[in-house]
Amino acid sequence: MGNFFGSIYCWFEDFFGLELADYMWGVSSPLSPNNSFIGIGLAMLGISLAMVLVYYYIINHPRLNNWWGWLIFLGINALVNFVVGWQWVLKDYYENKMVTNDPSTNMQIPLNIGESEILCFGVSNMILSIFAFVIFSFIFKWWSTNCSRAPF
Question: Taking the model in full, what pTM does it have?
Fold first, then answer.
């Protein structure tokens, strides 16, 4: 599961940086030895699925059965997933977990990861959540009573 999410997120590793990608894989920091892509990826899929189900089955209002109603929920999904991905990694940054051991001095030194790379990771999570929302929409829209024709 970790390799699946890691390979998907690493489509964007040039955008958010190789050093952050290595940290997320769990290979560069002794304080975070596990794969962080699993939790973030499952959260992104869960939030996207929940937003699709809310739009097509809970709200399910005829007034929202058009492209702009669907786009509102897509935007909310993207915004929520941006904040989740950004804050998930930013928490580790503020807890000083993004360090590595210097082999010559055996001391911990910070990785070359800044807040801008973490912000770019949030954008990457947002883009992936848009893809997930579109895929889930194609899967679940057919059984909706009022919104089955949204967005197309």
Answer: 0.90
